[in-house]
Write a structure and sequence with these properties.
Elements (H helix, E strand, L loop, with lengths): L1 H22 L6 H37 L5 E15 L7 E12 L6 E8 L8 E7 L14 E4 L4 H50 L1
Parallel strand pairs: 3-5
Antiparallel strand pairs: 1-2, 1-4, 2-3, 4-5
């Protein structure tokens, strides 16, 4: 066990020294860095970047729409309510009431019929209120984002929770591969530049 700890400590110190040499004029191993960038950094950065865009960024748009800060302006006319089962099985599901209505864009154009409406004050049919529209995002990994939804002062509380906690979690977990995806190309270019400069110096010395 002691030998394993010593070996691990030596490897860690070697890695730190390698990074130090990379930025202190030492030779950078361009090949391994390139493969790590292509096979590890880029796939993980794409994955976490996709999650960050789909979870906290999308939720932030929902919060802004619910608070009338952003989103497509218009009015929505409530026409019905419907009881919908949400959640998983084994007692984890619940039945909630969703409002549905027709959204008329302020900029003109065809209204969107019978879309999900997040409105304060209940689902009284015939109500017309100002609202903000969030367009469907079929490529989003979240459920429920494949449909247009209108926000009229409600429906942003859960989204705010997601922004604060899931956003912080994904930034912490995904920050390293994203940083790696940006840093490694700089290191690779630096290594290529150092090699080219060394060759030029060698030719000059030989001449």
């Amino acid at each position: 066990m002691t030998g394993g700890k010593k070996s691990g400590g030596k490897q860690s110190r070697s890695a730190v020294r390698a990074w130090g040499r990379a930025w202190s004029g030492g030779e950078i191993a361009v090949g391994p860095l390139l493969w790590m960038w292509l096979l590890i950094c880029l796939p993980l950065a794409w994955f976490f970047g996709h999650l960050i865009n789909d979870v906290p960024v999308y939720s932030a748009r929902v919060v802004a729409a619910g608070l009338d800060w952003s989103g497509e302006r218009g009015t929505v006319t409530v026409n019905r309510s419907q009881r919908v089962v949400e959640g998983g099985g084994r007692g984890g599901s619940s039945t909630v009431t969703h409002c549905f209505g027709d959204f008329a864009p302020a900029a003109g154009g065809a209204p969107l019929k019978d879309i999900r409406v997040h409105v304060e004050g209940g689902c009284e049919a015939g109500r017309t209120v100002a609202a903000r529209l969030i367009r469907a995002e079929p490529d989003n990994w979240l459920t429920g984002t494949d449909q247009d939804q209108a926000y009229a002062g409600d429906g942003w509380g859960k989204a705010l929770f997601i922004v604060l906690f899931m956003g912080a979690f994904l930034l912490i977990v995904g920050g390293l591969p994203i940083f790696c995806a940006v840093l490694f190309p700089v290191m690779i270019l630096k290594g290529l530049y150092d090699r080219a400069r060394a060759r030029i110096r060698g030719r000059t010395a030989d001449g």
